[in-house]
Amino acid sequence: MRELANKATHVVKFRRRREGKTDYRKRRILLISGKTRLVIRKSNQRIICQVVSSKEGQDKVLTQVSSNQLKKMGWKFSTVNLPAAYLTGLLCAKKSKIKNAVLDMGLNVSTKGSKIYAALKGAIDGGMKIPFDEKIFPSEKRIKGNHIDKKIEKVWGELKSKIEKTKE
To answer: With bands split at pLDDT 50, 70 and 90, how would you rate the model's confidence at 88?
Structure first.
C-alpha cells in the first residue's frame, strides 16, 4: 500500500494544451502584463483582428473585425491575401477606442512579411501604438497587392481612404 502512495500520480494536462491550441506560459506572460492585446488570427477563409482586454483571466473582446467585412465596403478580391490583411488591421484600429496594445498572434510562428504582420502594419497605420520591428513587415508593393493583380491597387487605395474616414 505504501508503495502505491509513493508513486507519483499522472497529472492530465489541460485539454487546450493537449490539443496544441494554447501555450499557457505565453498566455500567462501576456495576462500579467495587464496590457490590452491586439489578437490577430488567420484561417483558410478570413483574417480576424480583435482588441481584447483581460481581467482576472477573463478575456473581453472590445473590438472585432473580420476580413469578410471588407466585402461590404467594396472589396472584390480574396479576403485572405496580404492587402486584405492590411485593410482588416487598419479597420480594426479605426474602430477601436484603445490606442496602446501588444501583439498576440497565438501559436502561429510567422515568417517576416506574412499576413499577420500585414494586419499589424495596418493597425499601426490606423493609429495604434504596438511594439514592433520594421524588418517584419511586408514590402509596400506587396501590401498594395501589386504581386497579385494590377487592379487591386486601385480598389485598395479607394478602400483605404474609405476606412481612414471611418469614425471610431
So the answer is: very high
Instruction: Say if residues 49 and 65 touch (Cβ distance below 8 Å).
Output: yes
Question: Is residue 104 within a helix (H) or strand (E), and if so which, with residue range?
Answer: strand 102-104
Of the ranges 4-18, 43-57, 112-126, which one carries the lowest mean pLDDT score?
4-18
Is 138:166 a contact under the CB 8 Å cutoff?
Answer: no
pTM of the model as a whole: 0.85
Domains of the chain: 16-164 (3.30.420.100)
- Please state the φ and ψ torsions of residue 14, each to the nearest 5 degrees: -55, 150
Mean per-residue pLDDT over the chain, rounded: 88
The lowest-confidence range among 57-66, 85-94, 123-132, 150-159 is 150-159
- The C-alpha cell 491586439 sits at 38
Exposed (0-12), middle (13-18) or buried (19+): which is 20, by Cβ within 10 Å?
Answer: exposed
- Listed in sequence order, the DSSP H helices in the chain are 2-6, 15-18, 24-33, 69-72, 82-95, 115-125, 140-144, 150-164
Q: How far is it, in rounded angstroms, from Cα 115 to Cα 143?
A: 9
